[in-house]
Amino acid sequence: MNLPENLPKAELHLHIEGTLEPELAFALAARNGVDLPFADTHELREAYRFGDLQSFLDLYYALMAVLRTADDFTELADAYLARAAAQGVRHAEVFFDPQAHTARGVPVGTVVEGLARALERAEERHGVTTRLIMCFLRDLPAESAMETLESVRPYLRHITGVGLDSAEVGHPPAKFREVYEAAGAMGLRKVAHAGEEGPPAYVREALDVLGVERVDHGLRAMEDPELVERLVRERVPLTLCPLSNVRLRAVDVLEDHPLRAMMDAGLMVTVNSDDPAYFGGYVGETFHAVREALGLTPDDLRRLARNSFEAAFLDDDEALRAR
Ligand code: HPA
Ligand code: ZN
């Protein structure tokens, strides 16, 4: 169906581990002999009531135990790409958390090669071009991030950029200055989560200390008018995830989400799903929900879609072909 929310778009803020649906989690658990602390998919879904970012992260990391082989990662990414394509996604920049897997004894090469297999055939299979972005877990030491960066050297042909995720407060971007310098020297693009639960100062630091080209979330930038002015002037893209913000209690209800105010302020915002298996919707559902809750017009939705291609790590001719 040609719904306005299904218009061609790019998804720029999507954690592949956050696309693990309960059904696939149980199937992989059975295949890999992993015991899940939930009786069935219903009981697991019941656990999806989060009080904040950390309460989500606890479940998100626990469920990853089912991902063990390269095939598991391929299957996970294939399922996401098929669903995203059906909702108008023509280009996806996919985050993954290497340290969450290596800490469980899954080699980084298994993760990257498994994901890359799905991503690299996605254009042919699903009509979706892709990029892969490795995120560092900011609540682990910077040394661990640096080791992780070094460990992917053999796989750099599959990786476009670096990001920063996990528990934000108390782990400011500056902690990763050297890691981002090294990533830049390796030719990698740079993004970071900032201003999801952390203060506007973290958004500034991500720009000034890490040199990021996009800010993931950036929601709390709205508390700082000078910062907003700068983000507008420099056309810094913010990858918003409205359903995530409601589920993790950054905003009370979708009707209160500042997306519309951010568009009105002239910010370069995009709409994304973050961890769709956990937050109640993929990007098409997210577009639908914000349209209903915030009264966005077809023009507003087209602007969001246009922004998503402009903010993507695509060459101009690739961006034109994708939309
Ligand atoms: N924030 C921080 N870390 C994350 C998120 C998020 O929304 N999703 C997965 N890891
Ligand atoms: Zn995120």
Query: CATH H level: which superfamily?
Result: Metal-dependent hydrolases
CATH class: Alpha Beta
Please tell me the CATH architecture by its name: Alpha-Beta Barrel
Elements, N to C (H/E) = EHHHHEHHHEHEHEHEHEHHEHHHH
**Strand fraction:** 5-15%
| Extended strand count | 8
**Gyration radius over CA:** 18 Å
The secondary structure category is alpha/beta
Largest sheet: 8 strands, parallel
| Estimated helix fraction | 40-55%
Q: Unreliable stretches, pLDDT < 50, 5 or more residues?
A: none
Count of separate structural domains:
1
Number of helices: 17
Oligomer: single chain
- Could you say which small molecules are bound to this protein? hypoxanthine, zinc ion
Overall pLDDT = 96
Largest sheet: spatial strand order? 1-2-3-4-5-6-7-8
Tell me the overall shape.
globular
Which fold name is given in CATH as the topology?
A: TIM Barrel
Cα distance spanning the termini = 18 Å
Keywords:
single chain; 323 residues; alpha/beta; TIM Barrel; eight-stranded parallel β-sheet; binds hypoxanthine; binds zinc ion; nucleotide metabolism; EC 3.5.4.2
Can you describe what's shown?
By secondary structure, this protein is an alpha/beta fold. The protein has helices at residues 22-32, 41-46, 53-63, 70-86, 98-102, 108-120, 122-126, 142-151, 177-185, 200-208, 225-233, 242-247, 259-264, 276-279, 283-294, 298-311, 316-322; strands at 9-15, 89-96, 129-137, 161-165, 189-194, 214-217, 237-240, 268-271. It has one domain (7-313): TIM Barrel. It contains 17 helices and 8 strands. Strands 1-2-3-4-5-6-7-8 form an 8-stranded parallel beta sheet. Strand 6, helix 11 (225-233) and strand 7 (237-240) form a beta-alpha-beta unit. Helix 4 packs parallel to helix 6 (108-120). The longest helix is centred in the N-terminal third of the chain and has 17 residues, at 70-86. The protein is globular and about 50 Å long. It starts with 8 loop residues before the first strand and ends with a helix. The model has no long low-confidence stretch (mean pLDDT 96). Bound molecules: hypoxanthine and zinc ion (ZN). Hypoxanthine (HPA) binds at residues 15, 18, 53, 60, 165-166, 193, 196, 244, 274-275.
